[in-house]
Structure formats: structure tokens, C-alpha cells
Amino acid sequence: MAQCDCGATAGPLGVCADYYNTILAEEQLDPEMYKWHAVVVCAYLLQHPSRGHEKYLDSQFRWLQFYLDQGIDAVLRLRAHQVARNNHRSRASYDMAPLEPYPPLPAGGPPARFRTSFSDLPYGDGGFILDGHAAYGERMRTLASATAEAWKSLGPGS
Predict the structure, then answer these.
(1) Known InterPro entries for this protein (predicted)?
(2) Which residue in 46, 84, 107, 112 has its CB near the most CB atoms, within 10 A?
(3) Cα-Cα-Cα-Cα dihedral sign, residues 120, 116, 113, 44
(4) Predicted TM-score (pTM) of this structure
């Protein structure tokens, strides 16, 4: 059975990248599902850091912690705040202040395994929203929690 670079075995859709790309495609058709976009991206790149840019992993780790601490509505507000600051007329930079209270990314990663990975996500009639948006949101919380937990197990942040 194929194994993903995060240590997970492939699921019915394939390796985690296949799940991730399918989620991104489904999000484009479902604004309610898109609410978890930042969580999905951060969790995927923290579980598969070779697919992203190392310089962003710390902020992605902090975003996940922010989400786990304050919830999806706070993430949506912060995302809207960041988009407004990024407006070419505002000339403001990315605002790290809301993420500063959270511990930095631990050194020595990535973790070898995660309690939950993308290839563990159920998929069926209705795609990833097969049993509703609330259940999908709970699965995203579980995925985010497993990701943050595995990184935190490496020790203190750098």
C-alpha cells in the first residue's frame, strides 16, 4: 500500500495530496466549506512541509493554534483583517500581532506521523461534506489538533 511523506497510508482517493487537491476543488463550489480553507492549507503544509515554503511554516503553525484556541469565526475575522491590510491602497504589512501569543514552530520537524492525516478523511456521496458542514468542520478541527499536537511533541519552539 502506498505511503505518503507524512507517514500516512493512502486512502481510497490516494495519498494526502489527492485528498488536499480534491478538497480545494470542492471548496470552489461550496462557500460554506471554504470557511475552513486557511485551516486546510495550514494543516496540509505542516503535515507535508516539503510541499510549501519553510519560511511560512511558523506562521502556519501559529494560525492553527489560533484556530484551535479561538475557533473558525475568529479565523474568518482575522483573514478578512489581513486581506484588508494587504490591499494595495493601504500599504500595510501582514499583521502578526494576533498570532504572537502562540508558541513558535518547534525545531527538529517534521513529525514522523500524525494521529490524523488527510487520507483518513471520509469521502462519499456529497464529497467531503457527505454528512454536513458541521461534521466536516469537526473533522477539520480534529485534523488541525492532530497536526499541532504532533509538532508540539517535538519540544519547545525555536
Answers:
(1) DUF5946
(2) 46
(3) positive
(4) 0.91
